[in-house]
Amino acid sequence: MMKAKNRFATLVMTGLLVVSSQAVLAQGKDMALFLLIGQSNMAGRGPIKEKGQPVGKNVWMLNKSNEWVIAKAPVHFDKAAAGVGLCEEFARCYEKAYPGKEVGLIPCAVGGTSVHKWGPEGALYKQAVNRAKIAMRNGKIEGILWHQGESDAKESVELYKKALQVLMASLRKELEAEKAPIVVGELLPKFSDFNKNLPEAIKGVPLCGIASAEGLKDKGDNLHFGTEALITFGSRYFDVWKSLKK
Asked: Residue 148 and residue 27: Cα distance in Å, rounded?
């Protein structure tokens, strides 16, 4: 008799948990969604100081199985080296500015990828669009955050510019995100020529701004931003996004 009661109690608790989960997702139908694309510095390679800590009260991430889960670092899963990224602080800044609003992060960045691998005919683009459309069942794309360029630092600005324009125009059309601000970020100082050409590269991309990497430090490898730098970078990304929001 006691075992039967325990099984019944378990079933009741399970049911309550399912209802609770569904209620949270129902609230999330008005999520502010942010598509995260690019290469390793968007995916994040910063050491995680507090593992298991939620990014925020109302911050979610679309996991590898296309399920909404509470956002925790690492948000990305492209490689085993994934760590803290700039998106966490971006989401925290959004949460402070819009209290009570649910934030949905859509991680799609992959380390070591060229801008040309993100073309509309490629697998990276198709995967990002597919994940974004799944996420859009619970909200609207409010911004596209792009950090990429280390793999294309020696390419002509015109070739990079053309590829970026095609990518962003295609994403906006497919994701009904014509009014969603796009934020791109500078690279570390060793890529000074790329950073100098970035304003020219984003010409022709409406509602697009640049987040400065001035003064930000790498994690010791002269390639990836450190954790503290990424926190500052995320805040800068948010400031640029907010300045573009209409």
From this structure: 33
Residue type, 98: Y
Q: How many domains does the chain have?
A: 1
> What are the two backbone dihedrals, phi and then psi, of residue 89, each rounded to the nearest 5 degrees?
-70, -35
Residue 195, C-beta contacts closer than 8 angstroms, at least 6 positions apart: 186, 187, 189, 213
Domain that holds residue 85: 29-244
Judge whether residue 20 has pLDDT over 80: no
Whether residue 2 lies inside any domain: the answer is no
State pLDDT tens for residues 107-133.
999 999 999 999 999 999 999 999 999
Domain annotation covers residue 7: no
* Interval 208-241: pLDDT, tens: 999 999 999 999 999 999 999 999 999 999 999 9
Helix (H) or strand (E) holding 77: none
| Domain assignment present for 9 | no
- Provide the pairing of β-strand 103-107 with 31-38: parallel
* Pairwise CA distance, residues 166 & 56, whole Å: 34
Confidence category of residue 135, pLDDT binned at 50, 70, 90: very high
**Cα 102 to Cα 92: distance, rounded to the nearest angstrom:** 11
pTM score, two decimals? 0.89
Which CATH number fits the domain that encloses residue 181? 3.40.50.1110
| Residue 20 belongs to a domain | no
60 token code pair: 């979610």
User: What's the pLDDT at 46?
Assistant: 97
**Cα–Cα dist 34/45, whole Å:** 19
Nearest Cα to Cα of residue 75 among 119, 101, 37: 37
